[in-house]
Every structure is written in structure tokens, then in C-alpha cells.
Specification:
alpha/beta; D-Maltodextrin-Binding Protein, domain 2; 2 domains; ten-stranded mixed beta sheet; disordered N terminus; BUG; Bug_dom1; Tripartite tricarboxylate transporter substrate binding protein; signal
């Protein structure tokens, strides 16, 4: 009888010291499990989803970073391109993947912009957790070969709006779409409109043939075409002139410092991924970014390695979402 009563004793009647001991043991077990997850991870190949087609700047920068990260982790990292719906398809696949650290996703500015551009998305900001900011890349304003080759003359033509100029983007809400809208407003281009493509390769093709008149694209991807004279480089969007295009003025030099913009790329994981794994990935990426040879390789492509903690990237994302929301509302944009 007494034994039965002891077995049925409610938790509130357990001595306080004993309850504290149980909590301490549970905490130690949890910490030990996290440490084991960190120590044993990864023990098989990882998959990193890029929500854009192969060959663009996001894909190129991801492959550069993942090559170095793979060497540090001692595991193969497969880059899986899942383009479509302005990055939504690929990002959704990551959000709905197992939170075990073996599926990760790359996001760029469109991820932040989409949260204001679309009324409903198949995931929420809480569906994914930040790992690390990876890179940022300056853009260049390029015009089709049939267009004027000087910024002032190009803007003057666009202000006439006869006919209105069109500009290529890699999708609604992408960094070059928003920047194109801001540029048109800032310079008074009459009737300028965007033409959305699935990726920058398709957009670049139509720019080179003159089917669209201008675009903002990553310096690394446009530099070969600029060097051949296939397009006109009118301005770079960085604070300083680009080493790759030293004769091209900055957008600030041309009177529009408010249009200084960089394309960034960062890494997310499905919500619920063990913090120990997220932290390990972040630390390893930070080490990749400290490699001088790697930074020089990125610099030759007009990019810069950043790195940072999950908390820092999370704060960066919140600021980007807030800024993008203000721009989307001010310009009256919607993809619905």
C-alpha cells in the first residue's frame, strides 16, 4: 500500500532538491546530445539549394563558398539548383526539409523582398533559421549596344519615353527589379518597365541582342561582355569604383548615392536544425572567409566574403525585410 502511494506521488510533492537534481541531469543530457551532434556532424554529403538557374552570380558565389566549406567539413556538398517563382520554389523546398543540417538553402535580396511583395508565401520567416551571411557583390548598370554609351545621354533618352525603355530582371522582386524601379523613379525615366526572366542568363541574352534596353547585373557576370564591347557599362552601384571596371563611374559620382546597392547571398537552414550544427556551419564559413587567397579570388570576381554569426545574419535579415517593405510600399509594387 505504501509503495503504491509513493509511485503515485504527484510531481509537486517531490522534494525541491531532488527536482533541481533532475533538471540539472536533463540539462547536462541535452548539452551532451548537442555536443555529440556537433562532433559527429556531418557524416554524409550535404545538399545546398540555390533557388536560381546555374551560371548566374548567386550560383557562382555559392559554388565558390561551398568548395571551401566542403574541404573544411570533409564532406561532399552538392549544389542543387531549383529555380522558379522568384526563388520561392527552392526556398520552400528547404523550409520543408528535415531539420538535420543536411539540407541548407541560399537566399539573396529577393528573400527579404518577397515577404512584402507577396501577400501569402508557402513558408514564413519562422520556417527557416539564419546560418551566415556569405558574400556581397557590386552591380553594374549596363545598356544594350544600340543605346547611348554615356550615363547622361542614356538618361536623357529614357526621360523622353518615346518609346519607353525596358529593363531585364531575374524575377519580380529581385534586387535588380527593385533597383531598376528605384533608378527609373530617381532619374525620371518615362514609362520604363521591367521584363522578368527566370534567371540572369536568359535576361543577359535579351540584353545583348537589344530586346531589352538596360539591366543591373553582377559585375563578374557582365565584365566579359563589357570588355568585348557587347554592352555599355554606365555605372557601378558600389561605394567605390570597381577594380574590374576602373573607368566606370560609381552611381554616387553620377549624383545618385541613394542607389548604392550590393547583391548579397546568405545561408539558411530549416527551423528546428540543432543549434550546435548551425553554429558549427557558421564557424566554418567564418574560417573560409578569413582565407586571404579565397578573398582575393572573390575580389577578382567583384565580390567580397563576409561571414558572421547566426545572430548577426538574423539581425541583417530583419533590417533587409524592413527596408524592402518600405521600398515595395513606396513604389506600390505587388506580385499577386
Amino acid at each position: 500500500m505504501n509503495n503504491d502511494r509513493r509511485q503515485a506521488m504527484p510531481p509537486a510533492s517531490i522534494p525541491l532538491r531532488f527536482r533541481c537534481l533532475l533538471l540539472a541531469v536533463a540539462a547536462l543530457a541535452s548539452t551532451g546530445a548537442a555536443a555529440q551532434a556537433d562532433a559527429g556532424y556531418p557524416n554524409r554529403p550535404l545538399r545546398v539549394v540555390v533557388p536560381y538557374p546555374p551560371g548566374g552570380n548567386t550560383d557562382d558565389m555559392t559554388r565558390e563558398v561551398m568548395k571551401e566549406l566542403s574541404a573544411r567539413l570533409g564532406q561532399t556538398i552538392v549544389v542543387d539548383n531549383k529555380p522558379g517563382a522568384n526563388s520561392i520554389i527552392g526556398t520552400e523546398s528547404v523550409a520543408k526539409s528535415a531539420p538535420d543540417g543536411y539540407t541548407l538553402g541560399v537566399v539573396i535580396g529577393a528573400y527579404a523582398i518577397n515577404q512584402s511583395l507577396y501577400k501569402k508565401l508557402p513558408y514564413t520567416p519562422q520556417s527557416l533559421v539564419p546560418v551566415s551571411l556569405m558574400t556581397r557583390t557590386a552591380l553594374v548598370l549596363v545598356a544594350a549596344p544600340q543605346m547611348p554609351g554615356a550615363f547622361k545621354d542614356f538618361v536623357a533618352l529614357g526621360q523622353k519615353g518615346q518609346p519607353p525603355l525596358s529593363y531585364a530582371t531575374s524575377g519580380k522582386g529581385g534586387v535588380n527589379h527593385i533597383l531598376g524601379e528605384r533608378f527609373a523613379v530617381a532619374t525620371g525615366l518615362r514609362g520604363a518597365f521591367d521584363v522578368a526572366y527566370k534567371g540572369s542568363n536568359e535576361a543577359r541574352g535579351d540584353l545583348l541582342t537589344g530586346r531589352v534596353q538596360f539591366s543591373f547585373d553582377a559585375i563578374p557576370t557582365m565584365e566579359p561582355h563589357i570588355a568585348k564591347g557587347a554592352v555599355h557599362a554606365l555605372a557601378v552601384t558600389s561605394h567605390q569604383r570597381s577594380p574590374q571596371l576602373p573607368n566606370v563611374p560609381t552611381i554616387g559620382e553620377l549624383g545618385h548615392p541613394e542607389l548604392v546597392t550590393y547583391a548579397w547571398a546568405g545561408l539558411l537552414a530549416p527551423a528546428g536544425t540543432p543549434p550546435a550544427i548551425v553554429d558549427k556551419l557558421s564557424r566554418e564559413i567564418a574560417q573560409v572567409m578569413k582565407n586571404p587567397e579565397f578573398q582575393q579570388r572573390l575580389a577578382r570576381k567583384g565580390s567580397e566574403g563576409i561571414g558572421g554569426t547566426p545572430a548577426e545574419f538574423g539581425a541583417f535579415l530583419r533590417e533587409e525585410v524592413d527596408t524592402a517593405g518600405q521600398i515595395v510600399r513606396r513604389l506600390g509594387l505587388s506580385a499577386d
